[in-house]
Each structure stands twice: as structure tokens, then as C-alpha cells.
Amino acid sequence: MEKKQWTSLSLEVLEVSETMAGFGVSKMDFTYVDGKLVDVDVYDS
């Protein structure tokens, strides 16, 4: 049986926008108090 040779390791780097939902997808979270908009959070997926 022949020994297998190890290959050199490689590192893959991903942009956060390229993970999960894909390119350019963002989600918005709105917070209303007494019918008035008080906060908006934008999340990039």
C-alpha cells in the first residue's frame, strides 16, 4: 500500500454579503411606538 501525500492547505475567504441569502439582500427591522417610527435596523445577509 502506497502512502498518500498531503496537499498544501488553502484558505477560502468569503464576503459577508456572499453568505446565506446571497448578493445584495438586506432585511429591515422597523420599530414603532404609539404609531410613530422610532428605529430602523438594516441587516445585510
UniProtKB/TrEMBL annotation:
InterPro entries: Lasso_PadeA-like. This is Paeninodin family lasso peptide.
